[in-house]
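anyone seen this seq b4? input:
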Amino acid sequence: MFDIGWSELVVIGVVALIAIGPKELPGVLRTVGQYMGKVRRMAAEFQGQFQEAMREAEMADIKKSVDEMTESATKQFTDFDPIGAVRKEIESLSSDPFKDGAPTTPASVSPEAASESLPAPVSSETTIPSPAHAETTIAPEAPQPAAATHDSPHEPNPQDAKPAGSGA
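predicted toks r here
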């Protein structure tokens, strides 16, 4: 605050010693110290009040911006009703699908386009084409099955097998 160096303080001390005298100098220094303490406390209090006012001003600005955001959000979402929108959609789907006798399919869908997207129905008269040759070939690296003669005594004949539930 003051730009006083050590040399200036020594000069002030010598002048005070000569002017006041050595007997009353300690009392004067104590009083000056008390006044300096009061001045410092007042300066600190003023600084604290000033900073508090600044924080309140900042808080007021923040509160104002939050209030503006809340107001804009409530304006945008006052008509927001997801349950109502779903209810309207369900009601529109559950209403009569054939109004005035006309189906509600879009006009842009042709019967040919609709038939291409669905598989053709299979009737009982439809025959499944058989393969060109009767015997199926197996890849050469796969093991070949044994002949189906069942003449070997080690392999059981599937025709001689007993049913699973018969106790005999």
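The mean pLDDT is 74. The longest helix spans residues 25-76. kinda curious what u guys think
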